[in-house]
Write a structure and sequence with these properties.
Helix content: 25-40%
Number of strands: 17
Oligomer: single chain
Radius of gyration: 29 Å
Mean pLDDT: 88
Shape: globular
Strand content: 15-25%
Number of helices: 14
Largest sheet: 9 strands, mixed
Structural class: alpha/beta
Low-confidence stretches: 1-58, 60-67
Length: 503
């Protein structure tokens, strides 16, 4: 064995020496050796080719490394009506979300993520602009960004900074005047609510979640590995209910057997006494949340089926996210890609006798949120934080990852900066929902902190005050209890301060 190794090394040295002599002889125009030495010339040539090829490959690899964008690619994934606890990583033992859970394991899970207004159009405008509704003024489904305001959204700012930008799925803000010309890739239906089942160009019926998944793949194949980094915004319709009459939760058929034999536990506040405790203006059959409750939750059988279908839609999104992550690895861009995941608002699944969002309850305003990807500092990987995170924080966080300055118009904060030593933690935030109004959707504003929640129905001067730390299900309104008077006064004053600041 030793003789063989010695012989191999010897041959290699001889060939290397001959290679050098050959190069010298070519420079000095010395005549090539004839006859028996031809084999050495051939070996010499092959060795030289191998050595130069290896050098060239290394140089090509270095060139490829240099051509890769130094700034990270950014993918923002948004689900629709996705409540905070409908995620395995958030402690839900029933729902199956292995791919989203894996993102949380590889990144940061925000356990206290909220939206500042719980309705699609307003929350999406806040996500893009980093502003409260009081500032961006988009409070219905027929108002769009002005040209000046659109230029201050994170996609426009990133494009100006050299990013390729794409948008896929539900835009959700004034479907008649979509900003498609701003984007390098646009795949959004020109409707307020895209249908769940669509017919593709091949004449096949495809589920919206699967269609969004296909568009993600098309975008990545087109823009991965280019000199410019990209920012892709993905907006799933799921798990939003359909617009059919009656509405449903149309999941992909391959998930039909999922959760079939599972019993969904009853939330505490499904007890009728909690609905009956509301004041008369709220406890109305004209309340949209109550109307939809009758469709989906008025019987135990309906409740079981509704929650299972809602979970099936989320599992469908989870599958699409898993496919996206796998493709990032296949395209070898996963090491330079940040993924931010969030819900646009929460969703009541029968709690307090309601279905839907809008109001200030935890089920309505609290959402799942994850920041993941290899560029995340190693010390933060697997972090589960209690820091309050808001939808208005998404824009400045994305801009910070891209190295783009945050405009003064943005009211949110860079979430990554909150982990720096000495950073001040957000203690509370202003909540506002003034779309429509009573009796359909009574207008509500308030203040949310980690321990207390103050809500005021501004048309009726009706207040709610909960100690959410002791009473996470919001079962006991402390507004009439003397024990809460000191804290209540503090929150009333804080509400006035935050309301002014949101403008």
């Amino acid at each position: 064995m030793r003789i063989r190794k010695f012989f191999s090394k010897g041959v290699f040295i001889v060939l290397l020496v001959l290679s050098s002599l050959a190069g010298f002889s070519q420079r000095m125009e010395i005549r090539k050796l004839p006859g028996p030495n031809l084999i050495f010339q051939l070996g010499n040539r092959h060795l030289w080719d191998a050595l130069t090829s290896r050098t060239q490959n290394k140089q090509n690899k270095n060139n490829r490394e240099k051509s890769k964008p130094t700034r990270p690619n950014i993918i923002f994934v948004l689900t629709d009506d996705h409540r905070w606890d409908a995620l395995g990583a958030m402690g839900n033992k029933i729902i199956r979300t292995p791919n989203l859970d894996a993102l949380a394991d590889r990144g940061i899970l925000f356990k206290n993520a909220y939206v500042t207004t719980s309705i699609c159009c307003v929350s999406r405008a806040s996500l893009l602009s980093g502003q409260y509704m009081s500032r961006h003024k988009i409070n219905d489904f027929s108002t769009c960004f002005s040209k000046k305001a659109l230029d201050k959204t994170y996609p426009a700012l990133l494009k100006k900074a050299g990013y390729k930008i794409g948008f896929i799925g539900k835009f959700g803000i004034d479907s008649n005047r979509q900003p498609d010309s701003l984007f390098d890739y646009w795949a959004c239906a020109r409707v307020e609510q895209p249908p769940y089942l669509v017919v593709n160009k091949s004449g096949q019926t495809i589920h919206n979640t699967d269609s969004v998944g296909k568009d993600i793949k098309q975008f990545l194949y087109q823009f991965a590995g280019q000199q410019e980094p990209f920012c892709l915004s993905v907006s799933f319709k799921a798990p939003h209910e359909s617009e059919s009459d009656p509405p449903t939760f149309p999941y992909q058929e391959r998930f039909a057997s999922l959760y079939q034999n599972t019993n969904i536990p009853k939330p505490v506040t499904t007890d009728p006494k909690y609905w009956n405790s509301f004041p008369e203006f709220f406890r109305s059959d004209k309340n949209i949340g109550r109307q939809r409750w009758k469709t989906f939750f008025s019987t135990e059988e309906k409740r079981q089926e509704t929650v299972k279908n809602y979970y099936r839609l989320i599992t469908g999104v989870d599958e699409a996210v898993g496919d996206m992550v796998a493709l990032l690895k296949q395209l070898q861009i996963d090491r330079n890609t940040i993924i931010i995941f969030m819900g646009d608002n929460g969703f009541s699944l029968g709690e307090h006798g309601l279905e839907g969002k809008w109001f200030g309850f935890e089920e309505s305003i609290r959402v799942p949120m994850i920041i993941s990807g290899a560029p995340i500092p190693r010390k933060l990987v697997g972090r589960k934080t209690d820091n309050i995170a808001l939808n208005i924080d998404v824009a400045p966080t994305i801009l910070s990852f891209a190295g783009v300055a945050t405009p003064a118009t943005i009211q949110g904060k860079d979430l990554m900066a909150s982990f720096k030593s000495g950073a001040a933690e957000r203690q509370d935030f202003f909540y506002e929902h003034t779309f429509w109004g009573s009796p359909g959707l009574p207008k509500v504003e308030g203040v949310v902190s980690k321990k207390f929640k103050y809500m005021k129905y501004i048309e009726h001067n009706y207040e709610e005050f909960y100690n959410t730390k002791r009473d996470p299900n919001e079962t006991s309104n402390l507004i009439d209890q003397k024990s809460g008077s000191t804290e209540l006064d503090k929150f009333r004053k804080r509400y006035a301060v935050l309301k002014r600041a949101a403008r």
